Each structure stands twice: as C-alpha cells, then as structure tokens.
Amino acid sequence: MARRSNVQQGLRTAGEPEHSTYPPSPYDPDPEYVPARGRKASRRGGWSGGGGRWLVWTGRAVLWAVIIVIVVNGVRAPIERFTQGDQPAGSSVTPTSSGFPEADAAAFAGQFAAAYLVFDGKNPDDRAERLKPFIPEGEERQFGWNGFGRMSAGAFQLSNVEVLDAQNAVVTVFAQSGAQRWRLSVPVYYSNGKFVVSGKPALLPAGGAAGLPLSAQVEHDDTAENELRPQLEGFFKAYAAGDATQLQRYVAQGVTLDGFDGRVTLADLKSVSAPPGGTSREITAVVVWNIATMATPTPGATPTDPAAQAGGLEQAYRLTVEKQGDNWYIKDIRGAVRSAE
Question: Where is the stretch described as Disordered (predicted)?
C-alpha cells in the first residue's frame, strides 16, 4: 500500500496552522482563534462575518455627522447675531434688542406732533417757539410751514415705532383735526439720552370708519324681558347713585359692584334684550344716562340754555343675570359687544 508523502513546502513549527494555497478571504475564520475544548466549551464560533462590522461603522459615521452639524450651528448662531446690526437701513427687519428707547421716542414724537400740527398765521412766532426743543440747531424755525392759515389738532396717540438701528427710528402717531383723522410719521435720532427730529415728517391719512355689516336677527324671550325690566330699572337707579345697600337688592349673593356715586342719573331704560335660555343668561340693556354739566356757568345764562342742561348719553351694557325664585339678579355688568335691537 502506498504511503502519503509528509514532505512540506517549507519548515513549519509545531502548532502552526496549515497554509492554504488559495488567497485569503474576509470570511475566513480568525486563524488566531483557538476553540475551547470540553463539555463547557462555547458552541459559538468567532466573528460571523463583515455585515455587522459595516453597520457599526455606518452608525459611527452618522453620529459624527450629527455632532459636526451641532458644532457648526452653535458657532454660526452668535456670529449671525453679532453681524445683524450691519443690515442696511432699508431692511424690513426690525431689531428686537437694538437698545433703542421706544417708549421715550413715542412720547417725544407725540409732543412734537402737538407743536407741529397746530399753527395760526396771526401768531407764527408761537409755533416756532414750541418747535425749538424738537428740531436741530440751525434748522428753519417754522420747519416747513409757510406762515399762513390756521390748524389745530389733538387726540395724539401712538400708532407704531419702526426701529431702524440703535439710534434711528420712525415714530408714527395718530392725530385728529376737526372731523379729519391723520397719521404723522416722525423720523427721530437718539444719542446720549436725548432725541431730535432728524428730518421732515410725513402727514398720512388715517382712514375713515370701517363698514359695519348688519347684525344677525336676535331671538327674544318676551317673558323674560318683561320680568327683567322692573328689576333692571331699580338696579340702574341704584347703580347710578352708588348706593351699596340698594345695589345688594339686585345683585346675586356674593357679588359686589361699585356705582357712579351720583355722577349720573337714569333718564331711561330704553331696551332689554334677553335670548331664550335657562336660569342663567347673558342679556343686553340700553340705557340713557343724564350727565350733569361740568362747565362753569356762563354769566347771563338762562335755564333754557342748552349748555346749562344735563347731557344725555345712550349706553349699551351686557349683563349676566341669574334667576332665583321669581326674581332675576345681576352677577356681572360689562360693555355690550353690539347693541341688540
């Protein structure tokens, strides 16, 4: 019987693994791995393949990408905030933390408007004196007025403040002259705690009243309205007088209301509107208050003089009422949303 040759291609030390004539593969088992022997030896082999390792490296790559994005955004954000102040003046973005004193600028512009929009050709120097604290030194003293005509204005209210940067803004105020409402846009400059009007203002129309659509038809509870009328008449008389004892007869338990303390008197309970409902409802009442004249009597005035008589004002109220037994009691009184006819 022929024997197999034991001749090796090279010297091999004891325990050295036999080398394959084929090129190595990434799926070959670890040559250094020596399996355990015996009953307690693990049945699992070495690393099972390259798929798991690629998942690990992919996860690490994604994690590092997220970290890089966070770091870049964290560095970029303060740089952008720092450079925001370099935006052009025409930008529509209003700085939120420019340091410009908006409240003081609004007050300054309102006072300027009160001087600027009031003039009288018979006394031009009066306007020039009132404008001095607002306009730059060396500016023409009437600041664009030709010295003719007459105008008066009042009811100055802030519309908005457009902050351009830490020292410049345009403040727009509302004003009324007779039946005309205006807006006046005033450019202002701020430095060292002081303001100055930095250019000619712009007079703009404020628009008229909005068109009010017709209100929806209101459903009435005639029975409740008839029950409420005498209660409401007594309540509004006590409300006008400010009589706390009398008011307690008409308000719900635990409710306290302040009255007018005699500054008005009830002339008429014009209407009561109560929708259908349960024992608690929200109703509308229209009243006419008589308001005593506050003016100093004119010498020679007669009792028939209209200015010497009490003025009447029609007012609409929204009341929350609650029925207890046969009577209704007031829990709250506010201004009405829209008068219900």
Answer: 1-48
Helix (H, G, I), strand (E, B) or coil at 75: helix
Tokens of 3: 């024997």
E strand or H helix at 335: strand 327-335
Tokens of 240: 């006008």
How much is the pLDDT for 95?
43
φ, ψ for residue 61, nearest 5 deg? -65, -45
With cut-offs at 50, 70 and 90, classify the pLDDT of residue 70.
confident
Domains of the chain, each with CATH number or no CATH? 102-205 (3.10.450.540), 222-293+307-335 (3.10.450.540)
**What residue type is 126 in one-letter code?**
D
CA distance 308 to 293: 6
Whether the model pTM is above 0.85? no
Q: Which residue has the tokens 């007669």?
A: 302
Q: How far apart are CA 281 and CA 287, in angstroms?
A: 19
**In angstroms, rounded to a whole number, what is the distance separating the alpha carbons of residues 250 and 60?**
76
Q: What is the Rg, in whole angstroms, of the alpha carbon atoms belonging to the chain?
A: 44
What mean pLDDT comes out for the span 32-50?
A: 49
Give, for 82, the enclosing helix (H) or strand (E): helix 51-83
Comparison of pLDDT for 159 and 21, the residue scoring more: 159
Contact present, 270 and 286 (Cβ < 8 Å): yes
Q: How far is it, in rounded angstroms, from Cα 234 to Cα 249?
A: 9
Six token digits for residue 51:
């798929």
> Rounded distance, CA 252 to CA 256, Å?
9
Residue 340, token pair as written in the block: 């219900």
Beta bridge partners of 264: 291
